[in-house]
Amino acid sequence: MTGILAHDRIGSVRVTDEDGRLYVARTHISKACVNAYRGSEIPGHAALGLRADAMYRLLRAPDELARAAPTFNAIPVLADHAHVSADNPRRDITVGATGTDCAFDDPYLDNALAIWDADAIAMIRDGGRRELSCAYRYDADMTPGRWRGQPYDGVMRNIRGNHVALVPAGRAGPDVLVADSAIQESNMAPTPAPMPDATFSVQVIGHALRTGALTPDTAPDALARALHAARAEMDEASPTPAIPAAPSVTPGTPSDVPSDTPAELASDAAVRDAVARALDAERARARAMEDARRAVRPLVGDVIGMDSADAIYRYALAQAGHDVAGVHPSALRPMLDMVVGTQGAAAGAVVAADAAPDFNTRFGVTRAPRVL
Question: Which residues lie in Low complexity bias regions (predicted)?
Fold first, then answer.
């Protein structure tokens, strides 16, 4: 935005007032979908007979989100992950609040936002923290089924909103972001998925893994649909990049020589290779998160619900009273080791969220949140 005070652009749902506060008239804050969760993230997992280190696909069902809509009214918007309450409001990271007319419009949960912190507004504008992540409590109903072609292991029941956070990437995907233009109607009619092709990037596969649409045990016949759906979601959220002109080819170079490999086989091999690399990256991320959880346990207890080791370290250090803004990720673990070595273990376990805020006591919520 180059002007001082006005709409961000024609057709925008964002308005900036004369004091610099950002208002978003309507934006997606969550959506009905199937996401993957580690067993340890699911409330009451031991009583449900779930393995703490296994992955389970949970459905945020449309009817459950519709019933939960009022609980997402007038709750805090945070700039970082932290459990907050009336006793510990964390004013230092509270940057705004949701509106008072939350409504479910299949498949999205929509609400207004007000952001009053200049740094948070800057991160929204530059894309650094443009996606939204809701934190909420729920009851796990581990009855398996299928929803819109996707298998799931259980359903989130009795969802109660706790807060919304600004994050680089949330489980609900890149279409749940701080809207900057009028929300388009979604066409939910199912269409046949084309066969896989070699254009699936690691980013697309990573998005499918992050949202739970693709898992290590996804059936082969569901692979194409999952990847095409993930790419469609990403295309919706960002403009199509310009396609560079093809480089000129000197006759006789390897690219000028006909290949004996059928296009379909090359395409399938490319998809399998990309999936394998993405799965390896996901396993490495999961291992790093487990290491981080063990490392912070003496300081803050059991941390549940965050999506990266970086977030876990930052949360623990912030809870210990250390400012980690601008600290490079490589320095977080050494900082934590130093703090743990000089500070006694914190009393009691702490449960954290992918994003964190709280006006939760207005809804009678007294336990720590589970995360979207």
Answer: 237-251
> The tokens 């006793």 sit on which residue?
87
Q: Which residues pair with 253 in a beta bridge?
A: none
Whether the Cβ atoms of residue 179 and residue 13 lie closer than 8 Å to each other: yes
Q: For the segment 2-40, what is each residue's pLDDT rounded down to a tens digit?
A: 333 333 333 347 889 999 999 999 999 999 999 888 998
Cβ density class 320-334: b for 16+ within 10 Å, e for less: beeebeeeeeeebbe
**What CATH number was assigned to the domain covering residues 14-184+355-371?**
3.20.16
Q: Which residue has the higher pLDDT, 87 or 350?
A: 87
Write phi, then psi, for 164 (nearest 5 degrees).
-125, 140
What pairing do the DSSP bridges indicate for beta strands 108-115 and 94-98?
antiparallel
Q: Given the DSSP bridges, would you call strands 22-31 and 108-115 parallel, antiparallel or unpaired?
A: antiparallel
pLDDT in tens, 283-309: 788 888 888 888 888 888 887 767 788
Cis peptide leading into residue 357 (ω within 30°): no
At 43, which amino acid appears?
Answer: P
User: In this structure, what are the phi and psi dihedrals at residue 52, rounded to the nearest 5 degrees?
Assistant: -65, -35
**Residue 193: Cβ within 10 Å count:** 17
| Nearest one of 351, 353, 344, 332 to 299, comparing CA atoms | 344
Q: Which amino acid is at 367?
A: R
* Sign of the four-CA dihedral 103, 229, 285, 46: positive
Each as own residue / partner, the long-range contacts of residues 12-19 (CB below 8 Å, 24 or more positions apart, any chain) are: 12/180, 12/181, 12/182, 13/179, 13/180, 13/181, 13/182, 13/183, 14/178, 14/179, 14/180
> What pTM was estimated for this model as a whole?
0.49
Phi, then psi, of 105 in degrees rounded to 5:
-130, 95
Q: Which helix (H) or strand (E) holds 37?
A: strand 33-38
pLDDT tens-digit readout, 309-345: 888 889 888 888 888 888 888 888 888 888 887 654 4
